[in-house]
Each structure stands twice: as structure tokens, then as C-alpha cells.
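Entry 14. Structure prediction run on the chain below.
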Amino acid sequence: MEEFKTGEVLFEKKGHRAYITLNRPEKLNVLNADIYRKIDRIVDEIEDDPDIRVVIMKGNGKCFSAGYDIEVEVEIPGIMEARDRIRDINSFRWKIWKSKKPYIAQVHKYCLGGATNTVLPFDFIIGTEDMQFGEPEITFGAGPGFLMIPWQANMRQTKVALLTGKKYTGAEAAEIGLITKAVPADQLEAEVEALADELVKISPNAMALTKAGINRTYEIMGIRPAHDLWDDLCIFVENTRTDEVIKFNDMVKEKGVKAACAWRDEYFT
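Output returned:
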């Protein structure tokens, strides 16, 4: 895939391994609709390549990703526009969930909001002990774009994560089952590659069928219809604006994301 050798999303293949790299380090790898579409296309190509046995996603620069680009989301979308946008964004997440291949997220420093939603359907998430991980969307009047935490943490922890917007360290996230493992920052890449070493040795057929068996168990329990319902509810969340949300969005427009987030953090302190 020549087009992904440069740009905001990179793709590289090394033997049986594929690497997807977020490449907006100057913007802390924040995500937008175009980046999601690029990831979606890469995932399709990976699925069609029988030589690839494991996929690793990581971020260049200081962090994995600080989340969705708030600057492009301050305008209130129409009902159908919001619904279509949510489903378009979640397309590649469901493809990763359904993939025959194991996906590993290599996460450092920040993995928040849209970035957390992106890695939750991965089979493995290896993060640094000191990273920030979570879904703070509720603190600026939005909701999680991919409602998978209720299926990965217990009810009490889910309510803390999604009703308060708590930001977890990697160690805390691992303790309650939101990520696979937390390691010191200088050990992250080695830990991920060691896991990949194990996975590439496994029969692709055994991997595909076992992963399907695990995930279909959750589908039988209702994970997919629960997500579909949440997609519809998100429409109303995104079209509801309180005084606090309006002030936050106005600050994003007038003073920038950094100032708006500083005000929000102070407000919720």
C-alpha cells in the first residue's frame, strides 16, 4: 500500500506482522473522520493478506493519541448526520472485532476518548504504567463512541469510567481489565513484540476460529444489539447542549482546545 508509506496514517509489513502507525505527532495524533477512513481501508487490506498473522497499532511521537480532534466536533450535527457519522466511525472497529487476525494496541502516554474507543475492540492492549486511559467525553457533554467498557469491566467500575470520565493510569486500567497489561515505558515495545512472537507461531485457522468463538459468545450475550442501541442514543447526546457544553465549545472556537480543556478540568476539580 504505497499511499500509506507517508501521511497521517502509516502502514508497514514485516514478515507476518503488520504495523499501523498514527502519524500526527505535532497534534498528539488526534483523530478525525479522514484518519478513521484510512484505518478502515488498511484493515480491509490486512484482512485480505494471508501472510499477515498479527497486527500492531501504535502512535508516533509523545503519545499514542490524545483522542478525537475536538476542534472539528464543536458544531452540532443534524440527527441523521450524527447517526451516519457514528456508524461510519465504528465501521473499522467492528472489522477489527470480526477480523481473523489478532490485533495488539501499543499504547503510551495518552489514549483518551476516541483513541480509547479505537483500541477497545482490539484483542490485546499493552500500555505504559503511567499513561492516561479513559473516556472523558461526558465531561464535555458527549458520550463514548464505542460502548464496550460495560463488557470489559464490572458494573461499578463501568459507571465510574463512563459517568465521571475518570482518566486511569495504565496500571489502574490493567487492574480492572480495561487493558491487557501495563509495563514501564522503556519496556513497552519489547513487551508488544514478545507477544507478537507468540501469536505469529499459532496456526492462522486456529487463531481465526478461536477468536470468532470468543467474540460470538459476547455477541450471543447481546454486545452487538447493545452497541446498535447506543449508536441511536448517541444522536440525542450529541444534540443536547447545556450552558457548560456551550461555554466549552465557545472556548474551543475562541481560545483553542488547550484553554477549553484547562477550563473543563478546573470546573470538574
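The two ends are 46 Å apart (CA to CA).
Filed with the rest of this week's runs.
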